[in-house]
Amino acid sequence: MTTTPPPADATVPGPLTSTDHRAFAFLGGTNSCLRQCLCTLARHGVALRRREPERARVLLDTVRPWPLYKGGQFLFDLMEWEDLMIDGEPPPLMSRERIVSACVLPVQWLAAATAQAPTAAKLIPGQRTANALDLPLRLLVSTARTALQGAAQDLTDLLSTPAPHVGPDDTGHGTTSDAAADDAADDERTDDEPPPLEAGFYLYEDVTLGALVVLGPLLADHAPTDPAHPA
User: Fold this and answer.
1) Mean of the per-residue pLDDT values for the chain?
2) What is the pTM of this model?
3) pLDDT band at residue 182 using 50, 70 and 90 as cut-offs
4) How far is CA 85 from the centre of its chain?
């Protein structure tokens, strides 16, 4: 079983330099982040398999013949990620936003690499800028759209007025707004607290299902618009 070694103590004299300790601190953090992400995806996969078994079956039947799925299974087994995931106490859940943000750039590159190149006779708007920056046009458009959406959301957050806090009434009981907030919190906990991962035969499948659930909207945003493009 692959175990995560304890971090080296920088205060203990030894052959390692301070740079070695800092390098291991970075790599250890990366290792922990990978474990947290894999376990989170697996838990979302377990939730989908329990909640919508028919959808989970169709999703897995669709991706099983694909080289990406088979290669992922090989990599999962070769690097002993299952041992990494189940070794020790379960890590806290990683937010969907963090997982999606980490995958935005790889998905954009894949979309740009698989997009049909425009012909020279039909130079479309933005092509000159893309050529000048030596970037695929689709990646340039996706990057610009993401930047604009992020800026718009930041402005919305900055300009929005926080909702007034509604406390208990004179009787000491919560108001209707409090009850609505509690219901919303319960719904959020239901969505954000999937069941524990299940080690064993289904672990890689659960990671795959979780990735399809969490990254599904991001992948759908980069789907080809050409109806003749193969699904």
Assistant:
1) 76
2) 0.63
3) very low
4) 16
